[in-house]
Amino acid sequence: MPAASLRMLEAHARLYRKNWRASVFSSFLNPVLFLVAMGLSLGTLVDDGGGLGVPYLTFLAPGLLAATGMQAGVGEGSWPVMAGFKWRRSFHVAVTTPLQPNDVLFGTLAWAALRVLAVVTAYALVITAFGAVDLVPSLLSIWPAALTGVAFVAPVMAYTARLEKDTSLSSLMRFGIVPLFLFSGTFFPITQLPVWIQPLAYVTPLWHGVELTRAVATGTTTTFAPAIHAAVLVLFVVAGVALAAPAFKKKLLV
């Protein structure tokens, strides 16, 4: 990473040092509640006739780990980016220094990736503490979960950079992220969905992330080769950066 981008990353880290308490619980509290409510409570009913091959808690936990990466990635790529452009205008301040729009973009993306990694690491330890997954596979599954999160960060940053109002971010959550969370294999195999809708999962990064994370955590087989799932996630990262770069340049060089 260029040194200039590291300066932007450092700026994000200095700001976060002042307000980290506000996000330390909210980042993974909801998935923990889902783990307790569905994995430990509902899971006892599913285990009686679910036919999943593993206890439902073990099936659910890696899916929630990937979904936690998604939620953290979307969170980092949305309102903080909007704040940098519109409310705090810290991105505009940054480009009055020798930093260029791409430095702001890559520094912000790197910071978001670190935040995603921290969140999924904490959640991986939680699912281990619950006895859902053993420690070593749980730690290994951090990496596909983090990649899942970054696969959302970059496209959401590109989307946010083109917005003038934050109301569109609420619509993204309501009509995009929530349906993905519910119907991308996190809580049940997509084979239980209507046949006509199953192929839609193949173009969603969360489903690929869930497949890959669950395979690493539990040793189950994936629908496609693991390399294909990983390649799809990387493709979303690359496409997101490619779309974000001109938007950052247009917004900041005016």
Structure, explained:
- This protein has helices at residues 3-19, 29-49, 56-77, 79-87, 90-94, 101-129, 135-140, 142-160, 167-183, 198-201, 205-218, 226-252.
- With 254 residues, the protein is mainly alpha-helical.
- The longest helix is centred in the middle third of the chain and has 29 residues, at 101-129.
- The two termini are 25 Å apart.
- The model has no long low-confidence stretch (mean pLDDT 87).
Concise overview:
The protein is an all-alpha fold and 254 residues long.
Give descriptors for this structure.
globular; mainly alpha; 0% strand; single chain; 254 residues; 75% helix; 12 helices
- Look at the helices and sheets and give the structural class: mainly alpha
Contiguous low-pLDDT stretches (5 residues minimum) are none
First-to-last CA distance: 25 Å
Shape label: globular
Give me the number of helical elements: 12
- Average the pLDDT over all residues and give the rounded result: 87
Approximate helicity band: over 70%
Main sheet attributes: strand count, strand direction, barrel closure: none
In total, how many domains does the architecture comprise? 1
How many strand units?
Answer: 0
Strand proportion, as a percent range, falls in under 5%
Order of helices and strands: HHHHHHHHHHHH
**Radius of gyration over C-alpha positions, nearest whole angstrom:** 19 Å
